[in-house]
Amino acid sequence: MRVEDPKIVAALPELGVELRSRASLAELTSLGIGGTTDLFRIKKHEGIPGLLNLLDSNRIPHKFLGGGSNLLVGDGELPWVVLQLVKPEPEVVLEGNFAQVDAAADLGRTITYCAKNDLGGMEGLIGVPGTVGGALRMNAGAYGMQIGSYVREVKLYRAAERKIETLKGDQISFEYRHTSFAPDDMMLAVKLELPAKPFKEILQGIRICNEKRRSSQPLGQKSAGCIFKNPPGASAGRMIDELGLKGLNVGDARVSDRHANFFVNAGKASAKEMLTLIADVRDRVAKAFGVTLENEVVVWNA
Ligand code: EPU
To answer: Is 296 known to be catalytic?
Structure first.
């Protein structure tokens, strides 16, 4: 979608917003799939209510992009614009056991920075790509931990109230790959409370998790992590593997040979191909196991 109205374009600098025309979502997502649209890069949180008013009053639909690491975007010219936070300097401010982190901060860099300052707890999430905001929204977890356990406060733009608010950790529910935030809430910043641990000890935990991840997941390939959530008490990856579906492909969209719940873009896969593969695997699992797998990957299809 193109935004060319000079009145809209002229209002952006004052809101702290930079417009990039015809951005490629394939370049902004870890799957490397997605068409083009205009990208609004937000440099100050306080400009968001004004930006949203401007877009809504001009009937311009929008979506809010985090790190693009758990996302499958449709092909071609997209019928909505995309908003994304620009990383501020610094991304993380520490005070005792608390880390105040901007939603745009890279998750891995945040974990490492906290570790160097003897704050641990999130070792399991090392290697999970994406932003802190994205991890927060879906309550990212791995190796027995989840980010929600450390959240004490969240600053967010509440679309329903059209304003920026701060919620306490106990006002938010964090479940397996799910939170109580509304779909159109935008994560802006989070205050984490992390256990004090010597850097060397945290590093040891990070090395173990890295090793487990390297041995079981296709890290060097374009993917969105796990495609499906695990059904209660089962592993989607194991079920897909048991059906012999590793390597199954639709064009360049392929079930990973290493971990069957990772679907990779092995070249120039389109969203259509990836969606066909997802639907096919879901069908086969439903027929064989009587379980309908739910997407973990977020799909933005026109
Ligand atoms: N397995 C297979 N074949 C496969 C994949 C897995 O037999 O192709 C078996 C494994 O051998 C193991 C069991 O299934 O016995 C579970 O596998 P794994 O330990 O890899 O965990 P998972 O349930 O497949 C979950 C998360 C991952 C997270 C890992 C480690 C989900 C959907 N996935 O995977 O998260 O990294 O545990 O904690 O919850 C993600 O969310 O994107 C993600 C990658």
So the answer is: yes
Contacts 24+ apart (CB under 8 A), 161-165: 162/49, 162/52, 162/53, 163/49, 164/45, 164/46, 164/48, 164/49, 164/188
Measured in angstroms, how far is the CA atom of residue 259 from the centroid of ligand 1?
A: 7
If we measure between CA atoms, which residue out of 42, 36, 83 comes closest to residue 61? 83
Residue 189 CA from chain centroid, whole number:
15
For residues 215 and 137, give the distance between their C-alpha atoms in angstroms, rounded to a whole number: 27
Q: Is 131 in the pocket of ligand 1 (CB under 6 A)?
A: no
**245 neighbors 283 (Cβ within 8 angstroms):** no
- 162: alpha, beta or left? (left if phi > 0; alpha if psi -120 to 50): left
Ligand 1 centre distance from Cα of residue 235 (Å): 6
> Of all protein residues, whose CA lies closest to atom 16 belonging to ligand 1?
235
164 Cα: distance to centroid of ligand 1 (angstroms): 36
**Are residues 101 and 165 in contact, defined by beta-carbon separation less than 8 angstroms?**
no
Query: How many Å lie between the centroid of ligand 1 and the Cα of residue 191?
Result: 29
C-alpha–C-alpha distance, residues 222 and 224, integer Å? 7
Splitting the chain (302 residues) into consecutive groups of 10 residues, what average pLDDT does each group show?
97 98 98 98 97 97 97 98 96 98 98 98 96 98 97 97 97 98 97 98 96 96 98 98 98 98 98 98 98 98 80
- For residue 260, the ligand 1 atom closest to its alpha carbon is 8
Relative to the CA of 236, which ligand 1 atom is closest? 24
Give the whole-angstrom CA distance, residue 152 versus residue 131: 18
Catalytic residue among 41, 177, 213, 284: 177
Q: Which is it for the CA torsion 205, 209, 214, 219, positive or negative?
A: negative
Burial (0-12, 13-18, 19+ Cβ within 10 Å), 126: buried
- 286 near 280, Cβ under 8 Å? no
